[in-house]
Amino acid sequence: MGEEHTAPERYVFSFGAGVADGSAEMADFLGGKGANLAEMSALGLSVPPGFTLTTEVCRHFSQHRVVPDGVERQVRDAMNRLEETTGRHFGAGHNSLLLSVRSGARASMPGMMDTILNLGLNDSAVEALAEETGDGRFAWDSYRRFIQMYSDTVLRLDLEFFEEIIEEERERLGRDSDAEMTAGDWKAVVTRYLAFVEEELGEPFPQDVETQLRGAIRAVLGSWMNPRAIAFRALHGLQDQDGTAVTIQAMVFGNRDDRSATGVCFTREPNTGVKTLYGEYLPRAQGEDVVSGMRTPLPLSSGQASGHGVDNADRSMQVVFPNVYDELKCVSERLEAHYGDMQDIEFTVESGKLYILQTRTAKRSAGAALRIAVEMAEADLITRNDALLRIDPLSLVSLLHASIDPDAERDHIASGLPAAPGAASGQIVFSPDEAADLAERGKKIILVRTETSPEDIHGMSAAEGILTTRGGTTSHAAVVARGMGKPCVSGAGTLRVDYDAKTLSTMGRTFDEGDTITIDGTTGEVFAGAIAMRKPQLSDDFRTILEWADATRRMKVRTNIDVASDAELARDFGAEGIGLCRTEHMFFGDERILAMRHLVLAETDNDRESALLTLLPSQRRDFVELFEQMAGLPVTIRLLDPPFHEFLPHTEEEMRETADALGVPVEKIEFRAETLRETNPMLGHRGVRVAISYPAIPEMQVRAIFEAAIEAGQRTGRPVKPEIMLPLVGLQREVDFVREIIDRVARDVMKETGQSVEYTVGILIELPRAAVRASLIAQSCDFFSFGTNDLTQTVFGISRDDAAQFLETYRQAGIVEANPFITLDVEGVGELINMACVNGRAVQPELLTGICGEHAGDPKSIEFCEEAGLDYVSCSPFRVPIARLAAAQAALRVKNGAS
Amino acid sequence: MGEEHTAPERYVFSFGAGVADGSAEMADFLGGKGANLAEMSALGLSVPPGFTLTTEVCRHFSQHRVVPDGVERQVRDAMNRLEETTGRHFGAGHNSLLLSVRSGARASMPGMMDTILNLGLNDSAVEALAEETGDGRFAWDSYRRFIQMYSDTVLRLDLEFFEEIIEEERERLGRDSDAEMTAGDWKAVVTRYLAFVEEELGEPFPQDVETQLRGAIRAVLGSWMNPRAIAFRALHGLQDQDGTAVTIQAMVFGNRDDRSATGVCFTREPNTGVKTLYGEYLPRAQGEDVVSGMRTPLPLSSGQASGHGVDNADRSMQVVFPNVYDELKCVSERLEAHYGDMQDIEFTVESGKLYILQTRTAKRSAGAALRIAVEMAEADLITRNDALLRIDPLSLVSLLHASIDPDAERDHIASGLPAAPGAASGQIVFSPDEAADLAERGKKIILVRTETSPEDIHGMSAAEGILTTRGGTTSHAAVVARGMGKPCVSGAGTLRVDYDAKTLSTMGRTFDEGDTITIDGTTGEVFAGAIAMRKPQLSDDFRTILEWADATRRMKVRTNIDVASDAELARDFGAEGIGLCRTEHMFFGDERILAMRHLVLAETDNDRESALLTLLPSQRRDFVELFEQMAGLPVTIRLLDPPFHEFLPHTEEEMRETADALGVPVEKIEFRAETLRETNPMLGHRGVRVAISYPAIPEMQVRAIFEAAIEAGQRTGRPVKPEIMLPLVGLQREVDFVREIIDRVARDVMKETGQSVEYTVGILIELPRAAVRASLIAQSCDFFSFGTNDLTQTVFGISRDDAAQFLETYRQAGIVEANPFITLDVEGVGELINMACVNGRAVQPELLTGICGEHAGDPKSIEFCEEAGLDYVSCSPFRVPIARLAAAQAALRVKNGAS
């Protein structure tokens, strides 16, 4: 009603000739491309002039299928300015203004939306262009390209017909390639194009340039909601409501003449980060010729030969267009300095004049990213904080593990889930025992299983990598492999394992035990044969960045380990303590598993105690080794967690072996396995429930912990202060029950040895009830450690072992954005963590809080932990460097957000 | 420090001779017995005078092992008053005051703590007593009883030695029974007792009566913490810190002479509630003679013969002691009127004088309770609200189901869990198919299984009762049986089912298929053979109480059903709608399961749709029947919930049958079963996840619902307003996804039929995440229904199928007080329900809230629902009357609590 009285909204922003209405800060509004064109224009760089329609136009168009009132008038005004700047006229025939119309959203969506070039050509303008340039071939080729693109994106005709017409004409005229086509040839093609369009649509191809422009703008706006763009955004977590900007720009032609060219340049070498003008160009070509790959591009610098053939060094831009090369170098340095980061620049040279079409932050390898960040910070171009924020912590993964040589040939046979990063080649082995045997004899092994279980640990530990056909990225195989730093591909569902035949097969191909395969746990791919590898690269830059991160972060970074021997590696990676030592893995060794099975099969307290007496010395040895290794750093030990049935043998053969070894009838083992069978083992008789049912077990473990703490403390001279953690707690009384045992055994050991040990007792919060009742439970606890794997399972009601089936459907349908087992569900699980922290600290101000689920190695989740004020994150050893950097970034972001 | 200046705390309260320091309201402080003695004394009833030490004394004693300062002096003062009142002297020899010392806590703990009678006797007092009463036998017998009790409770000597001494003396003297013992005989026994005590303790039996009294008080106080008392309290949910009072009272002797007696009387007949003096007495006896069962007691009233033999009617108190009988009748009426409830009175007659020793609210049968409450309210003795509050809702269970005749002989063979109330006899049958066949031929069947699954429904429905050897009170068998109102005993772990041999065996006994057994689902017992039964009793009083309840309660009571035919029964019981219709049970019928299996095995959308087309008409028929039955009352329909694998056949034979029927290879079924297998099915691919994976399924169900709503609405003339409920929701987007389908199908059906249907869409809250994110999810919902079975599983992280093992340990160790699957865990699960309600209503003020888990039939949980302000509870049909009463009680309690 009152709208006509308010100032009309501004939908169009012009740029060019050293001035611009917009700037680089306006990417939300002008898209990345539009904003950077405005910025470069304001910097005085040579940018073809033009204007940008804001994303608001797109939002309005997506909803109402029309552009908002006022847009047409603002476009008209901008076109007038553009005609003035260029001295050309749109639709004028002679001296005609030709345009490109491109989409450009805030985030790059390469190839997803429509682009139209050479707009403004028609039957008369093409003749004038031919005359002005003296190059009829160029003019008619440009016209046919325009008709093709416009017919495709605006008129929605099938491109195939146009390709067919060219094919037919080429054949008729006897031309081997497009390069041989003459002006007359292209003119003949254009004639057939125009006839075809008229026949298909019942009206002629639009000759009115205003109609062309309106149609092109509508088509580009419409392409925002085309299915592949929607799918791309869903896949990359981008929002439909962001909308795209549309940039309309005067055309420049890299294919106009021999002094013309087009290309892409990086301000640094993207694999190493070394400062040099790096990139490629094509003389006499338009942008799409570079992209299409029909012609091989040439190097920019003469020293930059790799991948372009040595003989091409003489054809480098530095040699062929030395002046332009020097100008580009200048521009490149200016842009890098201006943006304070390595740039990826698109340019065109038209008749010897350089135009910059686009600049953006360049993609680079992880190693390069580290070098650039460190170099720039040391040169005071950016702050150390900027340097820290600029590294994607997850990119460090590739530096910590071997990777497949990107140039190596590969024979892809299957894809699974990227369960643990790194790549490895080895012989297929199906049995963990055999894997251990062969590895001892020096063979490189890939352990292949449908899924793994705790008793396969020795085989996994012996293998170079693990491949499973079932299970997700948080399956047993995945979690253990990540802990060991071994590559793992899980859930490769198209592969079929036949244990009896000892074969691994996929569609039509069968591999036998002993055949070599390669797995890439970073991508989830599986290949036949061995492939050349790149070793892990731990550069000085890597160390520098982590040192800066350590000086910046608030949260401590600890590590999760299974056996004492993991601790050394974790300390090398910078772990400041153990946040989770899973004691049950100590029971899967060859001799120990027998004592453990004896325990599980025990029918009387006496029987149980004799089994525990056997286990005590080995537990104590484990803890001594661990405490010595950690030399006074904090160590959190989780009491026995898994349900009893996990310790029983599964196959008939193993049952028989165990029966023989323990001198019991095999039926007894079968019967016990049947009694222990659970419908939902995740929610079963495990965790602190086992400790309460069989108090002799925590008694043994706690005795081992205290005896070891005293022994290790005496040897290293650094007192050990164990943190004893109870798993799967839901009730305060559970804590009180076990705490009473811990305190009693501690008193006993201290009395027996005459030594005193400080210790704390805390819980793993894995159940919603523990979070909800935190204010009570905290009264009995010294620390809370969030076991976010299980907490996610219980809060969501999703078993991670069974989730693969529907979580993928959920992701595709946009119901979840990220796998909640990888990135913490801040809204649900996070809410309970916050509740537990706030309520727990209210009654226990000294409460130590941490997280030890898989999420502790995920940067987004680490940011949540910083916000929640946790004291530490604890992740698998190979994730420690990532967590150190991510914790620093989180500290910076939270500080910035708060200030 | 300053204590001596404050008024000393009062630890001792006297009563007797028509006055009292305390009253009935002080039970927390004086114990039930002490408080009622004070009250009766104040009423002017004939109560032996005495005084009571408060529970505070016990609390202090339990902690410090001494009585508080001031107690000894207050006891001395009270003794002085007592000597005055009785005109006797403690420790005086002649005219000696004799005492009883008894414990008495707030709640009755029969036989758990110590009692000492005849205290104050010693070597001189006994002689004086003999002289005064002229009855040496009575005096010496009283002395030896005192020595015995005192030695046991205070001196901690083994009673066996004393029994031995009597035996030896009786033999030596040639007496057949105690009745033949003379004064001299008892004196000889006393001499040996005293010698024995001195020999054992090295000092003589205390002759000083003050020492006796102090010792007795200490012993009674100490008995509060004896192991059996602690165990009793743990079992009955009583608190250790409550403490017991100690009542010291002048002795009266029911065994003094022929005009003496002792007995117990009820103010009404406890089985029927009919007003009459009912009870039994023993002439010339002390209280413990009645309890010990050595002598058969006689009836009080001459008309009251049952159980006492007809020939005993002439020996009734009414005949033998007519004056005392009349006085007792008077007292009885006065006490019932005074307390406003039926009383259970202990009395003693000493030489013709009646003394009342104790009165308390009498235990009664459920039927009697109803009659008494209604009669008293109609006589304006109590209010209707009092009447409602006086009935234990759970006691109604026994009136709704058949029960075993309490007088029948029984041959107990095993005990399981009381999974569904009622009793039934029938032949053992192991296969559901056979059960259905035999039932059709008129046989009465008990279906015996290790555990049941949804495809056993037809067999369960045909059986009289169900017996399983695995599973808890919320197992499939239990839940379905309760829904059907059939008795069920679950988890009878000592029984062993052998399906191949068709036997049911227990230690040493084996039953074959066809043998008759009886199960009692109210107690969990299993018996061999058939046993006489009592039919359910739905009296007018029952109906009256429920009418009053309906007028009082705020919450609606709905019911949970599986098939339309359950609805009629539920309406008879007063259900005001369906809160949960589990649609999957409709798919287990003989023909439908095949179509359902076809659906599960379908590999393409086409295949799936053809299976769904087969299911549509039968779903529609089910819903038409249901809507007609409910005639416009609200009906909540849950969309398909179970995981697909529940519909597949389990045994090889069934797999083969299914394969034949569907014309697919059996391997396909096996393969599909393997693919669908889940590690934790509770947390798997079920609930709304199935609807999102296969949208054609909700489309079919929703179409059936709307077509049926229109058809039934037209037939009954009452418009149907379906409430469609999505199970296992955790995310708002899940609701949006399925709601879009519902809205679309609803529009389609309305367009096709030209009819309009109002409907609502809501969710089952079974996941912590749904509760935590309620403020978002409520934006997409019309109602929340709390599925507290699953919510308890996820909040606690306990699978109810696997919980039996450790929950019992937990209960015994006092870690949980009640099974959280039976009584709602208010602190954990309840907290999340409150959170969901508060946050949900904040964004959606019209949000309807209810509960449809098993807890909806549990009175304690219903009280929580009232406090949380839920709109309705929905329970299985047989629980509806219980819920109606419990909801009324909850409304009254919350109102009283709030006022």
UniProtKB/TrEMBL annotation, chains A, B:
Q: Which cofactor does it need?
A: Mg(2+)
Tell me a Gene Ontology molecular-function term this record carries: kinase activity
The protein's matches in InterPro entries, at most eight in alphabetical order, are given as: ATP_grasp_subdomain_1 (IPR013815), PEP-util_enz_mobile_dom (IPR008279), PEP_util_AS (IPR018274), PEP_util_C (IPR000121), PEP_util_CS (IPR023151), Phosphohistidine_dom_sf (IPR036637), PPDK_AMP/ATP-bd (IPR002192), Pyruvate_phosphate_dikinase (IPR010121)
Residues in PEP-utilising enzyme mobile domain copies: 444-524
What PROSITE patterns would the database entry show? PEP_ENZYMES_2 (PS00742), PEP_ENZYMES_PHOS_SITE (PS00370)
Q: Which residues are the active-site ones?
A: H476 (tele-phosphohistidine intermediate), C852 (proton donor)
Sorted keywords for this record are: ATP-binding, Kinase, Magnesium, Metal-binding, Nucleotide-binding, Pyruvate, Transferase
Q: Do the record's keywords include Lipid metabolism?
A: no
- NCBIfam families reported in the protein's UniProt record: PRK05878.1 (NF004531), pyru_phos_dikin (TIGR01828)
Function as written in the Swiss-Prot or TrEMBL entry: Catalyzes the reversible phosphorylation of pyruvate and phosphate.
> What name goes with this protein?
Pyruvate, phosphate dikinase
